[in-house]
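Help wanted!
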Amino acid sequence: MTRSLRWLGSRRLVLLAIALAGAWAAIYLQLAPADALPGEGGLRLLGKLIAAAFTPAVTYEAPDVPDGAAPFLVTVAKAMWTTLVFAAAAASLSTVLGLFLGFFASTAWWADDPIGGSSAVRRVLRSTVAPIIYSVTRLLIALMRSVHELMWAVLFLAAIGLTPLAAVIAIAIPYTGTLAKVFSEVIDEVPRDAALALRGSGASPVQVYLFALLPRAAPDVIAYALYRFECALRSSAIVGFFGITTLGYYIKQSFENAQYHEVWTYLYGLLILVVVLDAWSGAIRRRLVR
Amino acid sequence: MMSATEQVEALNRKRPRSAFLRGSGVALLILVAAAWFTGGFSLGDLFSDGSGEHVSRFLREARPFPVQKNDDWSEAGPWAGKLLQERGWTAAINTLAVAIAAIVLAGGGALLLMLPAARTLATPEPYLPSLRPPSPLRRAAWRTIVSLTRGLFIFLRAIPEYILAFLLMATLGGAAWPAVLALGLHNMGILGKLGAEVVENTDPAVPRALRSLGSSRSQIFVTALLPRNLPRFLLFFFYRWETCVREATVLGMLGLATLGYWIQEARAHFWYDEMLFFILLGAGLVLIGDVVSAVCRGIVKAGSVGSAVRTRRSPLAPCLMPLAVLCQCLHRTKAGGRGTGSDCQWHEPTATEQLGGSLALPRIASN
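Answered by r_m:
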């Protein structure tokens, strides 16, 4: 009896839980394997979609293109640029804000400060004020992250209408939360050698943070910020479903007009953006982290 | 003898510099500047003449419906309870079930597909120096398999879940499958890529020994690579599950029965109170998912529930307490030695790896 239970004690417990949860979900959602295959009409559509993947459109599919409309590929390029612009704006905004919030969400510069307890004021700062600021920031970050960027977009849409800046802010809010969380954790994991040396020679905790901890964490911070930039490309494309003219807007439009070859051109546009950025940031990462 | 200043200058001259990194930095700055200047982002849009009025109207209408009518906050509780009972509860469970089904699908698929994606396994002669050079044809065949699998991963990763679900809905109809498949496929791309990298970076000693005894590729994977890397796979699995919960909520806006469906529905009717209620419910679900995932990761890391609690560093110790008590009751006979973390032969991934959840993570290489 106990032997069989002991067998369960370690990671097998987790694996078993996963299997049970998966089985429950499949039964609850009535996920019959047969339903994963499309029906008659769906199959025809799927066939068309897959066939279109090999022949993406290079000109408009609609027979009657209004006069003066830009050539199709120019529209695609414009949509790609808009997607990139929204992603770059959101990623840069959230990186700056994430670094700012990450400072308050990290413990490295106050909890481990060797000279922190030297006066009564400092002791109070360290034992009460700093933990309170830290906890409040962590809570704020968690709340920002827990609401999806599309939900923020919907909220903005309802409150003031989804202007371009509102869309950028909608993406930037959850991204700031994620970046601040990761930045603070990366900084807290950094070796403290440089920090102690600076602190010992009279630098203030804030100076230690800026000139010892942050530079030490810089490669990981940059690598992660670049990764979020790539995620921002996808988010920026999706915001198009709410009327911003990024790739998602055109994908939705073309699909609803049954212009599947155009859909694939836009999808390949997104693929190119993501793959190029991924290759670039990969090259940067390899040079940063030796 | 150099003066201190000269020494510093000499050190400064010797610092590693890369033209590529500088160029990339400048290019990124230009891109960001161009984005902000050409994107048409004006603060004026946010604070135009009518916007103050819009916001205050939104805030008025975002209050619970009974409160809007007779300004009595005591009716907000029953209102929320009714909403939760009628729609919220089912939608939340649906969301959770979609996320779980999707991640299990993604994990299973990734486990299978990481084999042909790992360059150390998918070669004519894995882990051993071949006596005769393999024929160019076989080498080319294996290389094609690797690139095809990796290409599939890249494609699945690049297309957002939301767009995948949008395309799948038209072909599969409105049941749960489109959401599960969209989430599952996207995450399979991510987990598969991460898993293949972990497999490639595994210490080759054991697989090599097995191979020299005549093991097949799948035998090597099942007996050496999988057990060795399981904790790491599980960590990635749970991190991706967290994002699955987030995304599953949103996919409902396309018309699937998760929380997003009611959010979209409420928005269409301009019922901002219900919209806000379901958004907050979704946020709560995400937070619960984060905690569950953190607890599971804690158990995986520590090797057993008991030692997960004994590790005092864990801020989650209180959350783990009930589980630990249960386990302590179950194995009273277990005394030390096992499950104290000494059997973990892996290092904790950095926060970047954990949350990045993707893409050529730097630290794995130094495994």
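OP: Thanks! One thing I noticed: Chain A is about 75% helix and 0% strand.
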